Amino acid sequence: MSLVSVVALLGVLLVVTPAHLRAQFGTQQQPVRIPEPPPIQPIDDIRYLSDDRLGGRMTGSPGADTAAAYLARRFEQVGLQPAAGGWFQSFTVAKEAPVAQHAHVGGLQAKNVIGILPGRDPVLRNEAVIIGAHYDHLGLGGFGSLDPDSTGEVHNGADDNASGAAMLIQIARRMAGTRPARTLVFIAFSGEELGLLGSSHYVKAPIYPLAATLAMLNLDMVGRLRDKRLIVYGTRTAKEFPALLDSLNWYAGFDLKRQGDGYGPSDHSSFYAAGRPVLHVFTDLHEDYHRTTDDWNKINQDGFEQVSDFTTGIVTALANRPTRLTPVDLSGPRSAGAGHHTDSAAAVVTPGYGAYLGTIPDMTDSPGGVRLLGVRTGSPAEKAGLRGDDVITRIGPMQVPDLQAMTDALRSHKSGDTVDIVFRRGDRVTTVRATLGTRGG
Ligand SMILES: [Zn+2]
Predict the structure, then answer these.
(1) Cβ-proximal residues to 243 (8 Å cutoff; 6+ apart), any chain
(2) Ligand 1 centroid to 161 CA: how many Å?
(3) 313-370 pLDDT tens trace
(4) Among 134, 291, 395, 396, fewest CB within 10 Å belongs to which?
(5) Do 397 and 360 belong together in one domain?
(6) pLDDT tens profile 29-79
């Protein structure tokens, strides 16, 4: 029952109540005005999920369970339905996974939260479009944190990825009002920070067959729009994507950075490895990435709304287009063994695999090398003299034309190795020597 109807009922009661009750309620004939609670805004969802009391939402932790229960409630409020098995898709973090040993989560139960908006078209409703966002984060740091001194402190992960989870809810609410032709499956994934565990589980146990899944749209870090610069990965994974994005951006007016590859360090990689077209919407890395300072008050709310409008446009187009997409297989020599590729892509931004350099790569372009956004304080990269805007082109004997090559180069070394790093700074090409470390070292 809403507050409005309570007030209406009281108004009726006042007319017929005896004198002693009238005295208690007051004798004024003016209707009682009780303000309605304001509707929950995306920033409220972000604040809830990134509250200290959720403890950084480490996969399998009580805080992650609280977040999952909250997301299921919000899915229901905005008009989604649970799958046949309920709101949660549970999975166990494999004990033998190396990542599980680092983060001490092996054997724990984790859960994806899944909400469904059934399609209205009698034929197209048998096809699904997946919109996903991970809700787990780094807990109390240590594994995955870029600030080794902060171990034990809550890593709130407001942008990474309470922002994506909040946008998931907002898009669900908007789409629920439009009755789309195809079925929409909204998934809040767990275990992303530990190596895309939740999305890997889903593609093995999909709610709708993957063959009938048109595409997967991933929202990971969408709350820090700067200078209208929006990055979309996977734009070449379906033939129709470039034209679709261009037409939507014609009035959205983003400085749109289109990246063709369907692999990247987030959940869309799992779906691309399974042969589905994917898009990953992303407002880029920043200095608070994977640190304790990724807080809700740094979210760009206007930017969030703009990205949400744009993304809702993509979902609407995918949900209602009369024909299916034309998947493009971009696999060259690089993607032999998609699982390996996925893991190593995650390794670049989640240190803990192979030797550690401490660079923060700029994921928007690789101008014949890997451009750095910055380097971690006290890291081997900083000690070697590297800094933001440098473009790394070689590590040891290996050429580094892009992020994947850089991951491979670092994986081929171990902690304590000394390597020569060649990089461009402006017009000059320089070589420095770095002693690689271990994560947190
Ligand atoms: Zn992350």
Answers:
(1) none
(2) 7
(3) 999 999 999 999 999 876 543 333 333 333 333 333 333 346 788 887 766 556 788 8
(4) 396
(5) yes
(6) 677 777 777 779 999 999 999 999 999 999 999 999 999 999 999 999 999
279/134 same-domain check: yes
Rounded to the nearest angstrom, the distance between the alpha carbon of 59 and the centre of ligand 1 is 12
Q: Does residue 309 share a domain with residue 392?
A: no
Residue 347 lies in a domain: no
pTM of the model: 0.72
Distance between CA 242 and CA 225 in Å, rounded?
A: 21
Whole-number Å distance between alpha carbons of 132 and 135: 10
| Cα-to-centroid distance, 285 and ligand 1 (Å) | 10
Split at pLDDT 50, 70, 90, the class of 386 is: very high
Going from the Cα of 221 to the center of ligand 1, the distance in angstroms, rounded, reads 8
The SS3 call for residue 364 is coil
140 found inside a domain: yes
**How many angstroms separate the CA atoms of 327 and 259, rounded?**
16
The CATH number of the domain where 418 resides is what? 2.30.42.10
- Angle, alpha carbons 379-351-217 (nearest 5°): 130
Domain co-membership, 169 together with 190: yes
Cα–Cα distance, 85 to 112 (Å, whole number): 12
- For residue 361, the model assigns a pLDDT of 73
In terms of residue numbers, what domain contains 32? Answer: 1-37
Q: Tell whether 176 and 202 lie within a shared domain.
A: yes
Cα 94 from chain centroid (whole Å): 22
Q: What average pLDDT does the segment 90-116 reach?
A: 83
Distance 111 CA to ligand 1 centre (A): 17
Same domain, 250 and 376: no
Please indicate, yes or no, if residue 18 is contained in any of the structural domains.
Answer: yes
Distance 290 CA to ligand 1 centre (A): 6
CA of residue 36 to ligand 1 center, whole Å: 36
Is 101 part of any domain? Answer: yes
Distance 299 CA to ligand 1 centre (A): 16
Question: What separation in Å is there between the alpha carbon of 57 and the centre of ligand 1?
Answer: 12
